[in-house]
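Researcher: Can you fold this with tetrahydrodeoxyuridine in place?
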Amino acid sequence: MKENKIEITYKSVAPEELSVDDRELISKAKEMTYRSYAPYSRFHVGAAIRMADGSIVAGSNQENAAYPSGICAERNACWQASALNPGMGMKKIAIAARNVGEMPKGKEDEAKFQSSPISPCGACRQALLEYEHLYGPIEVILFGADNTYVFPSISSLLPFSFTEF
Ligand code: THU
């Protein structure tokens, strides 16, 4: 019997260590939290993708009274990115979130960003991984007001993924 180990490496990055381009991508992800439609969870998520041509495609979570019909910010962003730019690589994704449920109704915009980053759900990792296999690594920037983490790829967040059949 042989024991195997998978290790992942990620960075904790201070705001001043981020490039101008990455700060712009995070800003877009943060902005998108104000465009979320999440009346059921009151958890507002934004995602912004840096495309291979330098452009940004962004999305937010969109919920529905039929709960499973809603979609996360990350899949909203990557599906838009692919629909608008078929065949184009995705270089980075930044993600930010605000729990507006902490605020009274009408004051949602005053909710602060999560102090620790949130991490994409399994389904979003799987969706993003497919584009990563097609076009190369997608760096993942998880924004938190106190900590920002940077992962080198989606596969680092999803080892032993289902890849093909
Ligand atoms: N959500 C996202 O949009 N992205 C994540 O990474 C985690 C969760 C959404 C789904 C749902 O609308 C709300 O946040 C609460 O789970």
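Model: Folded with tetrahydrodeoxyuridine in place. The mean pLDDT is 96.
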